[in-house]
Design brief:
Structural class: alpha+beta
Number of domains: 2
Strand content: 15-25%
CATH class of the largest domain: Alpha Beta
Strand order of the largest sheet: 3-4-5
CATH architecture of the largest domain: 3-Layer(aba) Sandwich
Number of strands: 5
CATH topology of the largest domain: Peroxisomal Thiolase, Chain A, domain 1
Oligomer: single chain
CATH superfamily of the largest domain: Thiolase/Chalcone synthase
Distance between the termini: 29 Å
Order of helices and strands: EHHEHEHEE
Length: 128
C-alpha cells in the first residue's frame, strides 16, 4: 500500500457520563436484613456499601442520565454521536441492545451503532 491509498481511521472518545441509583446500602444496613456484619463482608469482599435501584430507577433511566452527562461533557448533541458504549452490571440488558434503548428514551431516531459490555458475561456483546 502506498501513501496515496492509505485510509486513516480516527476514533475519539469525546465525552463520558455515569449515573448511579440514589439509595446507598451500607454493610450495617445489610446486617439488619441478613445475619452478617460489616467486618465479615469487608474481610471477604472488600465491599463497604452498594447502590440499590429504587422505584423508577432502571438500566434505561440511569443510562439516559449517563448519556445526557456524556453529551454535556463532550459539548455535543445526540445527533453528532456515531457510537455509544454501554457498560453495566445489571441483568436487565444481557444483549448489546442497551444503547438503542437509551436512544429511544431520548426520542432519537437513526440510532448510531451500539456496543455493550456487561460485567459477568464471558464476552462483550456487539449490536450492529
Amino acid at each position: 500500500m502506498n501513501d496515496q491509498t492509505k485510509t486513516v481511521i480516527r476514533s475519539v472518545i469525546a465525552g463520558c457520563g455515569s449515573a448511579l441509583p440514589q439509595r446507598v446500602m451500607t454493610n450495617a444496613d445489610m446486617s439488619k436484613i441478613v445475619d452478617t456484619s460489616d467486618e465479615w463482608i469487608v474481610e471477604r469482599t472488600g465491599i463497604k456499601s452498594r447502590y440499590i435501584a429504587g422505584e423508577g430507577e432502571t438500566t434505561r433511566t440511569l443510562g439516559t442520565l449517563a448519556a445526557k452527562r456524556a453529551l454535556e461533557h463532550a459539548g455535543m448533541s445526540a445527533g453528532e454521536v456515531d457510537l455509544i458504549i454501554l457498560a453495566t452490571a445489571t441483568p436487565a440488558l444481557q444483549a448489546g441492545a442497551g444503547p438503542s434503548l437509551r436512544d429511544a428514551s431520548r426520542g432519537r431516531t437513526g440510532s448510531p451503532r451500539g456496543w455493550g459490555c456487561h460485567r459477568g458475561a464471558r464476552s462483550a456483546s456487539r449490536w450492529p
